[in-house]
Amino acid sequence: MEFIDWTWNYIIVFLIVLSALIFVHEWGHYWVARRNGVRVEVFSIGFGPEVFGRTNEAGTRWKIGLIPLGGYVKMFGEDDSREGDDDELVELTDEEKAVSFHHKPLGQRAAIVAAGPIVNFLFAIFAFAGLAIFQGNPVPLSVVGEIIPGSAAAEAEFQSGDVILAIDNREVKTFDGLRQVVIANPDRQLVFDVQRDGKIFKITATPKAAVGRDGEPQNIGQLGVRPHLEHLRYDRADPFTALWLGTERTFVLTYRILVYIGEMINGQRNADDLGGPLRIAKISGDMAQLGLSQVILLMAMLSVNLGLINLFPIPMLDGGHLAFYAVEAVRGRPLGPKAQEYGFRFGLILVLVLFVFVTWNDVTFLLE
Predict the structure, then answer these.
(1) CB of 224 within 8 A of CB of 190?
(2) Taken in order 25, 29, 34, 39, is the CA torsion positive or negative?
(3) Count of alpha carbons within 13 Å of 190, Cβ hemisphere only?
(4) What percentage of the chain exceeds 70 in pLDDT?
(5) The three-state (H, E, C) secondary structure of 3-55, written as one string
(6) Which of 2, 26, 57, 263 is flagged as catalytic?
(7) CB contact at 8 A, 314 and 350
(8) Is the backbone of residue 74 left (phi > 0), alpha (psi -120 to 50) or beta?
(9) Is the dihedral of CA 318, 323, 83, 57 positive or negative?
(10) Mind listing the pLDDT tens digit for each residue in 128-164?
(11) What pLDDT does 295 receive?
């Protein structure tokens, strides 16, 4: 029974999450390609031999591959020729050129390639918005979670689980309300009304002035506590507010990922937190046990990651194709076949090295 539960939570859920995100990404390519008159020959979830498939009226083969760790959309005429019966390259006819990806204008080709990552971002926006509408936007309450060593809270002997009811006789209910009072009072003694184990008493603490990157103190108070994530209030939002919240969360998450990558490149962070399929499977299983809403939240976050990564200017990824198209727009003609071939070889090597690296990180993480 435990093996069945483990298989469902950590393998099946992971494959469902991954397949759904791959479908969203590839559907973006497919939809824009069809809107621009490109014939799509294959829409595949997974690689390898076909397990199940059907061909629709437009001639697209929709299929599921044996290895469910990715997917692809194969468009007609991704080069400017095709193979005949004798395996020799044959020029396309005018009718075939009309539905060929390669013969579409540069703007249309760029739109088709960019559509996959863009739809990933749109999926994240609507997923975050749906959670805000149906579950509610999580608002941490004024409950102490982690206490930072050496902070004002540690010196005042706050404890994890303390409920802060008021500060200087002003009622606080949310962690954001607590934060706003603390921020406005650096180096000023405050009296906290605290509930602990059913008893209410007062704690005196003086928020310390924050220190900037230049080492100079700032006019911002810090207590040194983080919210307790088991004590949340959920505020449901109307559809318009939810869409704004979804857009904001997607933008903030994208910004944080870029900041993290920048800090990793300049040596401010190490790469130990980079994860791959094994870690995603572990996180997917953990989130699945917390409920469907947490799985949707994970899917939204992973969708942002998938969309952003695919926009990096690395050959083999969508961003690499867009980089080639940018060069084509500047030069007035595409790069030569040899340059593109070497670029894709470099991209393949880079992707494989990154995959091995994150998998090693995953194994190390799971063995800790």
Answers:
(1) no
(2) negative
(3) 28
(4) 81
(5) HHHHHHHHHHHHHHHHHHHHHHHHHHHHHHHHHCCCCEEEEEEEEEEEEEEEE
(6) 26
(7) yes
(8) beta
(9) positive
(10) 999 999 988 888 999 999 999 989 999 999 999 999 9
(11) 84
The structure tokens 């020729």 sit at: 81
Is 328 a known active-site residue? Answer: no
3-class SS letters over the chain? CHHHHHHHHHHHHHHHHHHHHHHHHHHHHHHHHHHCCCCEEEEEEEEEEEEEEEECCCCCEEEEEEEEEEEEEEECCCCCEEECCCCCEEECCHHHHHCCCCCCCHHHHHHHHHHHHHHHHHHHHHHHHHHHHHCCEEEEECEEEEECCCCHHHHCCCCCCCEEEEECCEECCEHHHHHHHHHCCCCCCEEEEEEECCEEEEEEECCEEEECCCCCEEEEEECCEEECCCCEEEECCCHHHHHHHHHHHHHHHHHHHHHHHHHHHCCCCCCCCCCCHHHHHHHHHHHHCCCHHHHHHHHHHHHHHHHHHHCCCCCCCHHHHHHHHHHHHHHCCCCCHHHHHHHHHHHHHHHHHHHHHHHHHHHHHHHC
297: amino acid identity, one letter? L
pLDDT 10s digits, 296-346: 888 898 899 889 888 988 887 888 889 888 888 888 887 777 777 777 777
User: pLDDT by residue (tens digit) across 58-68?
Assistant: 889 999 998 88
Whose CA is closest to 236, among 133, 125, 129, 138? 133
64, amino acid identity: I
Which residue in this structure is represented by tokens 């809107």? 35
Look up residue 288 and give its two tokens. Answer: 């699945």
